Amino acid sequence: MSPAIPAFETSPSQALLVGPDIDLASIDSRATPGFTGGKKEGRLKLDAENAELSELQEKLFAESRFGSELSLLVVLQAMDTAGKGGIVRHVVGAVDPQGVKHYAFKTPTAAEKRHDFLWRIKKQLPGPGMIGVFDRSHYEDVLIQRVRGFAEPPVIEERYGLIRDFEASLVESGTRIIKVMLHISPEEQKARLAERLERKDKHWKYNPGDLDERQLWDEYQAAYQLAIERTSTAEAPWFVVPADRKWYARMAVQQLIIDALQDMQLSWPKAHFDVEAEQARIARS
Amino acid sequence: MSPAIPAFETSPSQALLVGPDIDLASIDSRATPGFTGGKKEGRLKLDAENAELSELQEKLFAESRFGSELSLLVVLQAMDTAGKGGIVRHVVGAVDPQGVKHYAFKTPTAAEKRHDFLWRIKKQLPGPGMIGVFDRSHYEDVLIQRVRGFAEPPVIEERYGLIRDFEASLVESGTRIIKVMLHISPEEQKARLAERLERKDKHWKYNPGDLDERQLWDEYQAAYQLAIERTSTAEAPWFVVPADRKWYARMAVQQLIIDALQDMQLSWPKAHFDVEAEQARIARS
């Protein structure tokens, strides 16, 4: 018998859920809500849950082949170095690439800027049966754009409502949405930036411009606070994941995905053909 | 010390390379060219090489952030059940999703049919720094289309040249191309189709239409033979990978990818900033 998988005492779907009454500043970025184990147990759990995640993903995919319109969209937002890349690599990376549509949104191109801010987002949505992962998203349009003043305040204000409507329509058409903010402390970011400079194989990840963003820490936190206040809805909830401990953030996001998929009540599609007749055909072939 | 990784005696890049003089019918689909170990050693090797593959992929990606145009395109073609999905899951799946662009080509849509056959292919090419994986490809346009008579013989004939030119231009612009045919026997396919019917969680993968294609086995083999004859070039080579043994096919394709990336002479980009000055800025921040 393999050792028991450490369990969450409270599911991240409950422990990390935030609503319009969020107080971001009061959330401890080093905490491990719902989990009493340490790094060793956390890593064990991350590995152990991959089988469950894989089976759920395959069912989601299989159902789409028989007409299901269901899909899952995971939105990842965070300050630099908070660990979006690690989530993609270690959580999403354990899922069959055939069932994942990952997209990293960069600074909008000139072509993208000519359209409304949701235009480029809509092009990257997961199709039926897929798990979509957005590394950054339409939330940049109310985060960096607010902090940097790239758009006027009334425009930003209008976007919250457009985002709510957009996400509601996605949910309506079968896409489950999980919005994740990886929450780190400025001290942890400092340590991680310094580490990138210590290792030559990490230099490529370092961008001097990241330090300029870092100077605006408080403004970004305020923009996140506001964005979450305005766009927390029952159908497209936000989860704030403490991320100073990478192992916790990874297992928590994995569990959020598993919980969402389990809640979809997926099952293996029934054969739409006569199994015995097909077995006979194969035997003759 | 960890146990030594079993080695290929002859690299798959040499052992599996075919040219215009290919004789597909003479290639044993149960063989394990270049490797004397068995399933156990093969699986050990597959796991052990993931670290090398990951580092190479990350270098490819990192270089693209500093202006490199290099990318890799892996084309997977095969008869049904030959194991394309397993390659994607177990070989490609070990690579960071951020560095992989996987695309499965299906029957062309009405919109795609209104364009030339390479139009939809060009839209899915990997960008700089990416490993592109085509699950089926433009080769369907000279395989099923030939066998099923969806295009006239002179049109098919013209396509070989168009494919050669297209691939040459890709290579010219920095995309390394590996073309893989997973080669199984009709007996092995029969066993795999039967297995899909035995397990209820595999029924969704079974399509009665696959048996119709199976009836055309010899015609498909002839179409592959011809396609490989006409499109084997030094810059975009074909590799025929014996695939009756899944463990061999996976480790062989993994090694083909590793060999291609190693041949690109990738390295970690040098810092384009003053490391000490940035360290001082971080300390002050």
UniProtKB/TrEMBL annotation, chains A, B:
Molecular function GO terms recorded: kinase activity
NCBIfam families according to UniProt: PPK2_rel_1
Pfam families assigned to the protein according to its UniProt record, in alphabetical order: PPK2
Family matches, as InterPro entries: P-loop_NTPase, Polyphosphate_phosphotransfera, PPK2-rel_1, PPK2-related
Domain Polyphosphate kinase-2-related: 39-265
Transmembrane domains' residue ranges: none
Taxonomic placement: Bacteria, Bacillati, Actinomycetota, Actinomycetes, Micrococcales
The protein's name: Polyphosphate kinase 2 family protein
Protein keywords: Kinase, Transferase
